[in-house]
Amino acid sequence: MSVKRGAYSIWSLMRNALSYHENWQRAWRSPDPKPRYDVIIVGGGGHGLATAYYLAKEHGVRNIAVLEKGWLGGGNTGRNTTIIRSNYLQDASASLYEHSLKLWEGLSQELNFNVMFSQRGVMNLAHNEHDLRELSRRTRANWLNGIDSELLDTTGVKRFCPIINVSPESRYPVLGATVQRRGGTARHDAVAWGYARGADAMGVDIIQQCEVTGMRIEKGRITGVETTRGAIAAGKVAVVVAGHASVLAAMAGLRLPIESHPLQALVSEPIKPILDTVVMSSSVHVYVSQSDKGELVMGAGIDGYTSYAQRGSLPIIEEIMASTMELFPMFSRLKMMRKWGGIVDTSPDASPIISKMPVEGLYFNCGWGTGGFKATPGSGHVFAHTIARDRPHPLNQRHTFERFQSGELIEEHGAAAVAH
Ligand SMILES: Cc1cc2nc3c(=O)[nH]c(=O)nc-3n(C[C@H](O)[C@H](O)[C@H](O)COP(=O)(O)OP(=O)(O)OC[C@H]3O[C@@H](n4cnc5c(N)ncnc54)[C@H](O)[C@@H]3O)c2cc1C
Prior knowledge:
By secondary structure, the protein is an alpha/beta fold. The chain has twelve helices and 18 strands. The longest helix has 16 residues, at about 130-145. The protein binds flavin-adenine dinucleotide. The site of flavin-adenine dinucleotide (FAD) has 40 residues, from helix 2, strand 12 and strand 16.
């Protein structure tokens, strides 16, 4: 079943202006769950919704449900600092993140929904010899993979971002940086809403306030899930729940090599445009950008303890502020407005798991940790392929669950940077 829906355009804007914008069509339906689906996707974040979209669009699967325990994008999708880039070290990750970046470049047109993708460049700073060597090695690896990356010296950093403090007197002087100009930011909610609207138009049932509480497994094969709205049968079940991946795996009797940690961010009061790029520093430990509303968006490293509470501790906030002051002393009199936390699913090699599981018909997509927002389109795209064909897409062939047994890790702690 597909749902007829008018495209968003200048004409629809004008038409709806005549009725004071009170008659816009709902962006997606709110159906009751059916007794059975061909594919159930657990988790209504960006990754889950993108998976549903590409499953319907590219693989012709129509009888799909996305089950979300809260509201769409209420998890990490709606809590992150939206940094997008593809300059990872290993071939297996660089090609996956670059695939995603290419999808971002056409996403607003693809979805007929403005995801506000802004290619304002992402700069990674170096503050010591080790940073310089790591960034230089990664830049060369990026070139070999056809990914844009530039190395800057201190003068180049100042030219690219004039408000940054490059004084040699500072505690961690800026010695250089890399820039990926095609990187940038996007509007997080819009990504979830755009994919939801697109998937719903192809007949995908998006069911909010529906928590999966158990899995039905018979003779080694998944047959459905139990939820707060009753049992639902399924041919295949795909789990994309970020920080709750281990909880869902335990329902299927599996143990994942994942730790769930709080990751926090905060925003300042809005000010006039002052920062037109994204600045990240893994040594001073902060990442900063300015939103279209004018707020400075700042992110931290993870809180050291494991937790499922979507908040973090105050010392981390203090650290972000100290690091921000180090790089941008001119922000010292800004007031901070809000802070929040999400629960991120960190894996031992800082790379995701996009994989079939030992239970037939069960698939997991997790382990994106602090850096999965940038991968939303690519992750959904390759995960849909994995589910539909029951084998990995060439781009996620190495991102298996079994790599933690074989030792074929995809080590990305350097490129994962301060947090992502
Ligand atoms: C503060 C912060 C800053 C970040 N900054 C960046 C960044 O700048 N760049 C970047 O690339 N990444 C960043 N990330 C990471 C990024 O947000 C995530 O990797 C990504 O959004 C994960 O998307 P997702 O769709 O898998 O997860 P989520 O958006 O978390 O979606 C998972 C959904 O599953 C649902 N769920 C859980 N359990 C159940 C259940 N039992 N039944 C039904 N539904 C369930 C949850 O409610 C949730 O909505 C950041 C994360 C945080 C917290």
